[in-house]
């Protein structure tokens, strides 16, 4: 196919990935600006080397978010084509099937996905296909934020200060009201055939009670947060019973909202500066996680601080791990958090730190076991934030909490859930008869184990 053919008559493909939205979607915007028919594509890739298969909760969210996106595209005149398989092969086949002369996508930053995208750009351009990628899921591209020495940042505060010295995040793009679809339909899988939803057993009842995936619900939640909760964010964000958190993390993870939209709409609200600053710094923490993954693609498997390779993890205690996973440790705040996670697919951030600390420092279970459990049960687990935050708590990550900072779950409960509202909500008094671990003794054992790491430096 000739790269010189008329763009007015030729089809453009928009390849959706972690950007399941119409508003502020630069790839979609570019296709519409180009003119001509537009075919929208989503590829479920669980086969390409290095690509991590989604966890169960993530698959549940993806199913419903794709259903919402497909309906919204149909309303505007476009088809969402669903295809499954290795992305490099599937995308090339779709370009051929649609007789497309251009393809647009928004950039991804994990290592395997970047390799796929780079190869596709080369192969498609060699065939005369126009290919362009855009910044959409981060406020600042990872390669644009460097220390004075030209190296990646390893500490959050100077990283975020450097980000804020760069040009401000661009204004979000408007949502299209009409999309000219391709003249002939291209074969698509049926969403139900992907079997992303759990069946035997159907464990997703709590997810259905808690969430409505899709861009319209994401927009509604952002408006509710900015109107009702932002003012108290700085004061109440650490209290799990307060309901002051944004609940936007799965919306950002799946790209139902862009960070640019969240950024600018937050700044447009006249709320206390402390709360606005604190909330936007949480977007910055998300940026820092992706910045770290970009430069350390093996973040989910390897200690970022390689001296932690010497940490003497004992043989895995399967019973202790199972008790932690299912909220049966006998430690009230931890069990409440793990039960909240199983029911809703999410967990309050303060409690996430507490449950991760208990696993890695009191139970002395390798952080990778916890990271994998969260990967399977969180609706907001992504390739950067999930391992990044686990390594932060474990002490092995970038800007990590010092290893000797071991969260005491009893003191954390007294400070942040003083009336026991959160614990009562999720345990209803049903706790194991006694904790499975002595918090004081296990703290000492953890510090002794860390001495091995210190001696290895």
From TrEMBL:
Domain Photolyase/cryptochrome alpha/beta: 10-139
Keywords: Chromophore, FAD, Flavoprotein, Lyase
Cited PROSITE patterns: PHR_CRY_ALPHA_BETA
InterPro entries xref list: Crypto/Photolyase_FAD-like_sf, Crypto/Photolyase_N_sf, Cryptochr/Photolyase_FAD-bd, Cryptochrome/DNA_photolyase_1, DNA_photolyase_N, Rossmann-like_a/b/a_fold
Reported cofactor(s): FAD
GO molecular function: deoxyribodipyrimidine photo-lyase activity
Highest taxon above the source species: Bacteria
EC number: 4.1.99.3
Uppermost EC category: lyase
Sequence similarity: Belongs to the DNA photolyase family.
Name recorded for this polypeptide: Deoxyribodipyrimidine photo-lyase
Organism of origin: Microbacterium marmarense
